[in-house]
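Risk mitigation, structural track. In case the binding assays with 2-phosphoglycolic acid fail to produce interpretable data, a predicted complex structure has been prepared as a fallback.
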Amino acid sequence: MKFIIGNWKMNGTPQTKAKMINALAKTETKNRVVLCLPYTLLNGDNRGVKIGAQNISKHDDGAYTGDISGQMLVDSGVKYVIVGHSERRLYHHETDEIVHAKAIAAIKNKIIPIICVGENLAEHRAHKTQRVIHKMLKTALPGGGKFIVAYEPRWAIGTGKTPTMDEIESVHKMIYDYLKRHGNEKTPVLYGGSVNQSNAATIAAIKHVNGLLIGGASLEIKTFLSIIKSIK
Ligand code: PGA
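Fallback model:
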């Protein structure tokens, strides 16, 4: 069983969501499929499809205009939430400390956080990937509870570029070893960044890759379903 998580980012309408939910509800798969939607699309008839959000406040309630709490997500049927996505880090200045607090808030509400880590292009070119990710894990991960880690090289998101299969394998091994040392051996580690129909099955088959986080390729029913079916 692999996790296949679609991240719709700031895309989608009630109509496109309903069509995707209908298609997913009819698709038989051993994989764990989750659709991470914008807030306005979380509620409604999700036909048993697992729904995730893309952000959560570290606070329980109060004067935080524009934010959304864990309880509000629970009330909307949310089971998973992406935290620390590179777009949140970049456009909303989310630090590893904030990501950590958000992951804790999710766990407190029995929502599984999908905690994203990844190096930028300069760090990749300077061979600093493992060092950067180690630092992120050290600060961002919660001490315990159920969570997921997603390795998303920033330079691979939405660019059509991916690391080599060997690079993905060695980063995933490093993350797995880190988790194991901290008693979280069973924590799933996903890969994300320019996953598409042609590379999904190959990437998902790499050792210590427990699933995929998919942006652009999760928006189209045909593409997303073909990815889900291609992963055994
Ligand atoms: P992408 O995005 O698949 O469009 O590269 C992945 C992500 O941002 O999670």
